[in-house]
Amino acid sequence: MFSSHLATIQGYVDLLSTDGVERGLIGPREVPRLWDRHILNSAVVVPRIPQGATVADVGTGAGLPGLVWAIARPDLSVTLIEPLLRRTVFLDEVWEKLELDNVQIVRARAEEVHDEFDVVTARAVAGLEKLGRLCMPLVRKGGVLLALKGQTAQQEVDTAVKTLNKLGATTIVVNTYGDLEVPTTVVEVTK
């Protein structure tokens, strides 16, 4: 997955485990689990993303999953949406150090962004009902919301289905990705 971009993804991991910890973006206990819990957990979803897609990562924080996707797939155009200044400063530094031409960083709340994207994603941002209200307006018709969720994904879908349908959802499915100890669970909402 990262074969020709191994140095770049390792550079990102190094920045997360140093600057990311110092700035409070990653907890120090997460450092030994960066690869399996954060990098690979994000990367296993990459094959699901259409070739050449425009992607928005809402509430990206330290850049997960958006930066991982951008590194693994240079064909993607990835917009990282993050309202907090200290996080966007970190993202700008990562962008510059790793020379990521396919990444744009937008300091804003999701509600302030008026573009539409082929794929919108979020990881550990909010419950699915709130997440749908934040993200679905950014999904172009025919596009998809890929919400990285945990084991309660189906329960969240059951709670949020009416809201998602009102927001234009045509299909809502829960899929798992990756041959990992804990596979990545994704709620896929097509508009």
Q: Which secondary-structure class do the elements indicate?
A: alpha/beta
What is the CATH architecture assignment? 3-Layer(aba) Sandwich
The CATH topology assignment is Rossmann fold
Strand order of the largest sheet: 3-2-1-4-5-7-6
Largest sheet: 7 strands, mixed
Q: What is the CATH homologous superfamily assignment?
A: Vaccinia Virus protein VP39
Beta-sheet strand percentage?
25-35%
How would you state the average pLDDT, rounded?
Answer: 95
Rg calc: 16 Å
Shape: globular
**Distance between the ends:** 28 Å
Number of strands: 7
Instruction: Please give the domain count.
Output: 1
Q: Give unreliable regions as ranges.
A: none
Count of helical stretches: 6
CATH class: Alpha Beta
Which terms would index this structure?
about 190 residues; alpha/beta; Rossmann fold; seven-stranded mixed beta sheet; 6 helices; about 25% strand; globular
Overview of this structure, please?
By secondary structure, the chain is an alpha/beta fold. It has one domain (3-190): 3-Layer(aba) Sandwich (Rossmann fold). The protein contains six helices and seven strands; from the N terminus they run ααβαβαββαβαββ. The protein has helices at 6-22, 34-43, 66-72, 85-98, 128-135, 153-166, and strands at 54-58, 77-82, 103-107, 117-123, 139-149, 171-177, 184-190. A seven-stranded mixed beta sheet has the order 3-2-1-4-5-7-6, with helices on both faces. β6 (171-177) and β7 form a beta hairpin. The protein is globular and about 40 Å long. The mean pLDDT is 95.
